[in-house]
DNA sequence: TTAGGGTTAG
């Protein structure tokens, strides 16, 4: 009986690695059972590190097994799969008679563990043993080149491959296409592909990936079409390859990926994951959530990648109930620890305004990276808890991790929202001096916002003028916004002038300027701006408020009457306004003054989208249930006052997330301290 | 043996 046949026979009797191990002891007593077969089988079954170590010690303790090359190779592979390439190396170094297979396994172990330099050094060592690399060696070392950005060595390998006549090998050709694609030498990748005598789906997908990572969606698409006409069926890998080209892209591109998904991918989890990611990366969170429910209806179980992709959509939509369900699923299916997934959970809770839940996940993490810290810092920042953000930022610095550029955007923004002028200035200083991070325009925008909100308008303006790059819309926007808060006409006009050049179609800036004029009682100028807007056909983006009630997200526009319970909603609002007036509420009836970021001028303030969403939540949920609103524009001053009063009248906690931040409103007070 | 799917700011 051959070894394979014996092994197959054994595998019918012993279905798990655990059973093999249990039988192992008896195998030494029973000469009819070969220890080699048993150990070999255990190693083939993806053993965990503990099982692996047991097998390893058995091998070491037996003279015959110790010199068995097949077991040695399997041990090397298994350690690599457990993320322990150093142990793989240790075994490799002990082998008496090395051959190309040992070298290939060693190189692959390093590459799979991202140790590209080490992999290339092992390749160099081949010459000392007079061993020639083969068609298994090159795909691996080519990957080491692209992984380490070592294009020069990549070119050398290509020359060696041609010299050895290995360029006609499918795997080597695929390796070359992938290497050139990842090193952004797309023309060379294409040349290799075109000259390959034989191609498979991996060849095509590697080319698609090359174009996609260079943002060339149309070329990637053309390759898909050639692939189809050559008789190859795109698969989940094709979709996954396309993904980098389909972020913030046109709706046509999204439609095409959807077509691929519908026709070639509905069977495979990876395709669902890609399609969800495409929706999320193109600001289509509702479609991502919808697709996820279809996926569940099809009986396809999500994995950690599905959920990490979907959680940002929950955050965007403030879909807390779905977010919580996902969290429960993660716990139930033991998907933790998983750094990316846990980071996504922290962020989801933060975006849903659940700071304590976010902190609980953060505190429970075994390993945290700079993304984890940044998510938590910005969670505090968004909620106006600047001091907590500063405290956590200081802990991040002490943790041994280095805050990166994004972490600094978060902390600067947190300082700005909380009016922490000195702390913000300090952070900007250490970013450049201590961490040697070159400030990007985002950092400057945060500083302008910080200085401007705090009333240091001249300093903010000087800061803008001293910037090493051309100020953009965000910079002037932050300055104009600050000028409105502090009624600074001179600087406000300068900022507005730039904004009308940079973004002439953005209605919001015209409104901000008209607010400044109105506050200065320059009514003629207010009228002029209104007429300019009318003549140019400039409209404000309509305000939309979302509220999650009974597992569904409802949208409201200003003056919305489309909801089936519209009559009850307006009746409730009337009752509330009555009570609010008793409590001293006076609507800001002067349109120019309250016209911050709000909806259509023709509609009365009481029917702003936030108010409708609040009234709907009140009649649809049990008393004292917290209300969570998400708005696509900044909350207007009148709605802020109204929400505070409603929280006092109804005893409800009201959380409003607008484009900038959170307002946690309770018992008549807001977490922003009216600083926003 | 080869490709390919995930998290953070503004």
UniProtKB/TrEMBL annotation:
GO-annotated biological processes: RNA modification
Residue ranges annotated for the DYW domain, each copy included: 584-676
PANTHER family: PENTATRICOPEPTIDE REPEAT-CONTAINING PROTEIN, TETRATRICOPEPTIDE-LIKE HELICAL DOMAIN SUPERFAMILY, DYW DOMAIN-CONTAINING PROTEIN
Pfam family, one: DYW_deaminase
Keywords: Repeat
Family, as annotated: Belongs to the PPR family. PCMP-H subfamily.
Name this polypeptide is given: DYW domain-containing protein
Cross-referenced PROSITE patterns: PPR
Protein origin, superkingdom: Eukaryota
PPR repeats: 99-133, 200-234, 268-302, 369-403
GO molecular function, one term: zinc ion binding
Keyword set includes Repeat: yes
Organism: Escallonia rubra
